[in-house]
Amino acid sequence: MKKIDMHAHFFPRITQAEAAALDAAQAPWLVVDGDGETGQIMKGDKPFRPVYRALWDPALRLEEMDKQGLDVQIICATPIMFGYAFAADRAAPWAARMNDLALEHCAANPRRLKALAQVPLQDLDLACREASRARACGHVGVQIGNHLGPRDMDDEHLVQFLTHCANDNIPVLAHPWDMMTDGRMKKWMLPWLVSMPAETQLGILSLILSGAFERIPRSLKLCFAHGGGSFAFLLGRVDNAWQCRDIVRKDCPNPPSSYVDRFYVDSAVFDAKALRLLVEVMGPEHVMLGSDYPFPLGEQQIGRLVAENPWLEDADRARINATNAQAFFGLADL
Question: pTM above 0.70?
Answer without folding.
Answer: yes
